[in-house]
Protein backbone atom coordinates (compact mmCIF):
# COMPACT_ATOMS: atom_id res chain seq x y z
CA UNK A 1 0.00 0.00 0.00
CA UNK A 2 1.38 3.45 -0.92
CA UNK A 3 1.15 6.06 1.85
CA UNK A 4 2.09 9.68 2.38
CA UNK A 5 3.83 10.70 5.61
CA UNK A 6 1.79 13.13 7.68
CA UNK A 7 4.94 14.92 8.87
CA UNK A 8 7.49 15.11 6.07
CA UNK A 9 5.14 14.45 3.12
CA UNK A 10 7.33 11.61 1.84
CA UNK A 11 5.79 8.71 -0.11
CA UNK A 12 6.46 5.17 1.14
CA UNK A 13 4.96 1.70 0.88
CA UNK A 14 3.52 -0.30 3.74
CA UNK A 15 1.65 -3.57 4.19
CA UNK A 16 -2.05 -3.17 4.93
CA UNK A 17 -1.66 -4.78 8.37
CA UNK A 18 1.13 -2.31 9.20
CA UNK A 19 -1.09 0.56 8.07
CA UNK A 20 -3.92 -0.56 10.37
CA UNK A 21 -1.49 -0.93 13.30
CA UNK A 22 -0.03 2.53 12.56
CA UNK A 23 -3.49 4.16 12.53
CA UNK A 24 -4.33 2.48 15.85
CA UNK A 25 -1.13 3.77 17.47
CA UNK A 26 -0.72 7.27 15.97
CA UNK A 27 -3.13 10.02 14.93
CA UNK A 28 -1.68 10.02 11.39
CA UNK A 29 0.57 7.77 9.28
CA UNK A 30 4.35 8.38 9.37
CA UNK A 31 7.19 7.11 7.21
CA UNK A 32 9.71 4.85 9.02
CA UNK A 33 12.19 7.73 9.48
CA UNK A 34 9.60 10.08 10.99
CA UNK A 35 8.15 7.27 13.12
CA UNK A 36 11.60 6.64 14.60
CA UNK A 37 12.15 10.36 15.29
CA UNK A 38 8.59 10.68 16.63
CA UNK A 39 9.13 7.91 19.18
CA UNK A 40 12.66 9.07 20.09
CA UNK A 41 11.58 12.63 20.89
CA UNK A 42 8.69 11.83 23.25
CA UNK A 43 8.94 13.98 26.38
CA UNK A 44 6.73 14.48 29.43
CA UNK A 45 5.74 18.10 30.03
CA UNK A 46 3.90 19.24 33.16
CA UNK A 47 0.75 21.36 32.83
CA UNK A 48 1.22 24.92 34.10
CA UNK A 49 -2.20 24.86 35.80
CA UNK A 50 -2.63 21.44 37.42
CA UNK A 51 0.93 20.06 37.21
CA UNK A 52 -0.23 16.83 35.53
CA UNK A 53 2.43 15.48 33.15
CA UNK A 54 1.47 14.64 29.57
CA UNK A 55 3.69 13.04 26.91
CA UNK A 56 4.35 14.93 23.68
CA UNK A 57 6.60 14.27 20.68
CA UNK A 58 8.91 17.24 20.26
CA UNK A 59 9.65 16.08 16.69
CA UNK A 60 5.94 16.21 15.76
CA UNK A 61 5.60 19.79 17.04
CA UNK A 62 8.84 20.79 15.30
CA UNK A 63 7.68 19.35 11.95
CA UNK A 64 4.27 21.03 12.29
CA UNK A 65 5.95 24.34 13.18
CA UNK A 66 4.17 24.57 16.52
CA UNK A 67 5.30 25.01 20.11
CA UNK A 68 4.50 22.32 22.66
CA UNK A 69 1.34 22.86 24.73
CA UNK A 70 1.66 24.49 28.13
CA UNK A 71 -1.64 23.12 29.48
CA UNK A 72 -2.91 19.53 29.53
CA UNK A 73 -6.46 20.40 28.43
CA UNK A 74 -8.74 23.22 27.36
CA UNK A 75 -10.19 23.27 30.88
CA UNK A 76 -6.78 24.00 32.43
CA UNK A 77 -6.05 26.63 29.78
CA UNK A 78 -9.38 28.37 30.39
CA UNK A 79 -8.78 28.34 34.16
CA UNK A 80 -5.33 29.92 33.78
CA UNK A 81 -6.15 32.52 31.10
CA UNK A 82 -7.17 35.84 32.64
CA UNK A 83 -10.64 37.00 31.78
CA UNK A 84 -10.65 40.42 30.23
CA UNK A 85 -12.77 42.88 32.15
CA UNK A 86 -14.22 45.78 30.23
CA UNK A 87 -12.28 48.93 30.79
CA UNK A 88 -14.06 51.50 32.93
CA UNK A 89 -11.79 54.20 31.55
CA UNK A 90 -13.70 56.50 29.23
CA UNK A 91 -11.47 59.36 28.09
CA UNK A 92 -14.29 60.68 25.89
CA UNK A 93 -16.54 61.14 28.93
CA UNK A 94 -15.06 64.59 29.61
CA UNK A 95 -15.99 65.69 26.07
CA UNK A 96 -19.58 64.52 26.67
CA UNK A 97 -19.87 66.51 29.91
CA UNK A 98 -18.35 69.62 28.34
CA UNK A 99 -20.77 69.42 25.39
CA UNK A 100 -23.81 69.02 27.66
CA UNK A 101 -22.72 71.98 29.79
CA UNK A 102 -21.99 74.14 26.73
CA UNK A 103 -25.42 73.42 25.20
CA UNK A 104 -27.32 73.98 28.46
CA UNK A 105 -30.48 76.12 28.21
CA UNK A 106 -31.85 78.30 31.04
CA UNK A 107 -33.99 75.40 32.32
CA UNK A 108 -30.82 73.28 32.79
CA UNK A 109 -31.57 70.86 29.93
CA UNK A 110 -29.59 70.59 26.68
CA UNK A 111 -31.22 69.56 23.39
CA UNK A 112 -29.48 66.50 21.94
CA UNK A 113 -29.06 68.23 18.57
CA UNK A 114 -27.23 71.08 20.33
CA UNK A 115 -25.11 68.60 22.28
CA UNK A 116 -24.08 66.94 19.00
CA UNK A 117 -23.11 70.31 17.52
CA UNK A 118 -21.06 71.17 20.62
CA UNK A 119 -19.22 67.85 20.29
CA UNK A 120 -18.01 68.89 16.85
CA UNK A 121 -16.95 72.33 18.16
CA UNK A 122 -15.07 70.93 21.16
CA UNK A 123 -13.46 67.96 19.38
CA UNK A 124 -13.93 67.72 15.58
CA UNK A 125 -12.53 64.16 15.55
CA UNK A 126 -15.07 62.87 18.11
CA UNK A 127 -17.83 60.61 16.80
CA UNK A 128 -20.53 59.20 19.06
CA UNK A 129 -20.87 56.22 16.70
CA UNK A 130 -17.35 55.10 17.66
CA UNK A 131 -18.69 54.39 21.17
CA UNK A 132 -22.41 53.60 20.71
CA UNK A 133 -25.10 53.14 18.06
CA UNK A 134 -26.04 56.82 18.27
CA UNK A 135 -25.74 59.86 20.50
CA UNK A 136 -28.69 58.90 22.70
CA UNK A 137 -27.26 55.43 23.38
CA UNK A 138 -23.91 57.00 24.22
CA UNK A 139 -25.54 59.33 26.75
CA UNK A 140 -27.66 56.51 28.21
CA UNK A 141 -24.48 54.53 28.88
CA UNK A 142 -23.31 57.21 31.31
CA UNK A 143 -24.77 56.84 34.82
CA UNK A 144 -24.83 60.55 35.66
CA UNK A 145 -26.58 61.77 32.50
CA UNK A 146 -30.37 62.05 32.51
CA UNK A 147 -32.38 62.02 29.26
CA UNK A 148 -35.99 63.11 28.76
CA UNK A 149 -38.35 63.11 25.81
CA UNK A 150 -39.86 66.51 25.10
CA UNK A 151 -43.61 66.45 24.43
CA UNK A 152 -44.50 67.28 20.83
CA UNK A 153 -47.59 66.95 18.66
CA UNK A 154 -48.58 63.45 17.47
CA UNK A 155 -46.89 62.50 14.20
CA UNK A 156 -43.95 64.85 14.78
CA UNK A 157 -40.49 63.45 15.54
CA UNK A 158 -39.70 63.59 19.25
CA UNK A 159 -37.08 65.95 20.68
CA UNK A 160 -34.79 64.75 23.42
CA UNK A 161 -32.89 66.68 26.05
CA UNK A 162 -30.09 65.69 28.40
CA UNK A 163 -28.62 67.04 31.61
CA UNK A 164 -26.05 66.05 34.18
CA UNK A 165 -27.53 64.58 37.37
UniProtKB/TrEMBL annotation:
Which InterPro entries does the annotation name? LOTUS-like (IPR041966), OST-HTH/LOTUS_dom (IPR025605)
Q: Name the domain of life.
A: Eukaryota
In terms of CDD domains, this protein maps to: LabA_like_C (cd10146)
Q: Where is the HTH OST-type domain?
A: 88-165
**Gene3D superfamilies given in the database record:** LOTUS domain-like (3.30.420.610)
Query: What is the name attached to this protein's record?
Result: HTH OST-type domain-containing protein
Q: Which organism is it from?
A: Aphanomyces astaci (Crayfish plague agent)
Q: In the record, what lineage is assigned to the organism producing the protein?
A: Eukaryota, Sar, Stramenopiles, Oomycota, Saprolegniomycetes
Amino acid sequence: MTCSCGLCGGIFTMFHSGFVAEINQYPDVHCPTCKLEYDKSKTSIACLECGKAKTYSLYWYKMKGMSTPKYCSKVCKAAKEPTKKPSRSRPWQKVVYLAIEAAKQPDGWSLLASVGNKFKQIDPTFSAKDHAANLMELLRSLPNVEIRENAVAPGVAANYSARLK
